[in-house]
Amino acid sequence: MSVEIGQPVPDFSAPATGDKTVTLSALRGQQVVVYFYPKASTPGCTTEGGDFRDRKPQFDAANTVIIGVSRDGIRAQENFKAKQDFNFALISDKDETVCQLFDVIKRKKMYGKEHLGIERSTFLLDTDGNLAQEWRGVKVPGHVDEVLDAAKALNN
Hints:
By secondary structure, the protein is α/β, with parallel strands linked by helices. The protein has helices spanning 43-54, 56-61, 74-84, 97-102, 143-155; strands at residues 13-16, 20-23, 31-36, 64-70, 89-92, 105-110, 113-118, 121-125, 131-135. The radius of gyration is 14 Å and the shape is globular.
């Protein structure tokens, strides 16, 4: 089961960087970008995170919080955040609770072998916690600008 456009996203709490727990319901009143990436400190994930980092002031101006999610452990997330100077929380979803909620675990093929992994995906929630827009199978170049435009449009 996956969240659907226009429907409320079920509440969740998950461990995040900075020794914090991110609870979705605590973010009501703000728009929320939840973006899923396959693995910390890999090239595509570093580029995508850097794009969100560099545009954070514009997301802030659009009343939008950014949260990154992967299955990496909290130590890997902390290292990734520190090394890349990310200015937003990264969730460690080792048990895949948040991944399952958004249905982002997909069968992938690498070097001829199949495995289950995170499909690069982004979700934009409105101020009431409803899913406003989703992007699945994301290609990194230009993606963050598209999400930012959607966040700005949602404010109007």
